[in-house]
Amino acid sequence: AQRVTQPEKLLSVFKGAPVELKCNYSYSGSPELFWYVQYSRQRLQLLLRHISRESIKGFTADLNKGETSFHLKKPFAQEEDSAMYYCALNGEYSGAGSYQLTFGKGTKLSVIP
Amino acid sequence: GAGVSQSPSNKVTEKGKDVELRCDPISGHTALYWYRQSLGQGLEFLIYFQGNSAPDKSGLPSDRFSAERTGGSVSTLTIQRTQQEDSAVYLCASSSGNDRGRTGNTIYFGEGSWLTVV
Question: What band does B54 get if pLDDT is binned at 50, 70 and 90?
Answer without folding.
Answer: confident
